[in-house]
Amino acid sequence: MAIVMFVGTIGSFFIFVLEANNGPVTSPQEQAAEDFQKQQQEAAKARLDSSKPLEGYSSDEFDADKVTKLVSKVLDAGSGATIKGNDAISVNYFGWTPDGVIFDSSNQNGKTEPIELSLEGVIPGWTQGLKDKKVGDTVELTIPSDLAYGEQGSPPNIAPNTPLKFIVEIKEIVKKAE
């Protein structure tokens, strides 16, 4: 019995020394999850660093406390087909937080390339705010947090309960809803 306790004590001592020198021991799955999270954070930071406003527009600070409902304002009217809430569309856009920081944009490093998206696969503020708009419209969306990323936010660039603003240029309907 004394030998078992002695071996156990020595074993625990070595684990303690190794952990103190190398940090906590993690499983391969935990390490893979940590590595993936770090890659996602680095990608989000790179996108944040390279995101620019669309030509002719800028981000401005706004009072988050005053954003209580969705506002969808047409800045420049188009004359194309009307968008339905389940269409897939092509857009140029940029979005920013109340402190005026642009967190995402189709204008990366000075090159604007439209993206295609389904209005069924975006935040509710986009779906509701772009429905019934026309191809060619440029729309400013002011979105309360509950219609954006809500209580979970979208780390690392969007904190929980953060309202957002976007400028969206609707280029075309890629796929009409059936």
Summarize the structure.
The chain is built from 3 helices and 8 strands. Strands 1, 2, 3, 6, 7 and 8 form a 6-stranded antiparallel β-sheet that branches. A two-stranded antiparallel sheet has the order 4-5. The termini are far apart.
Word description of this protein:
This protein is of the alpha+beta class and 178 residues long. The chain folds into two domains: 2-49, no CATH class; 51-175, Chitinase A, domain 3 (Roll), CATH 3.10.50.40. 29% of the residues lie in helices and 25% in strands. It is built from three helices and eight strands. The strands form two sheets. Strands 1, 2, 3, 6, 7 and 8 form a six-stranded antiparallel beta sheet that branches. Strands 4-5 form a two-stranded antiparallel ribbon. β4 and β5 form a beta hairpin. The chain is globular. The model is unreliable at 1-8 and 13-18 (pLDDT under 50).
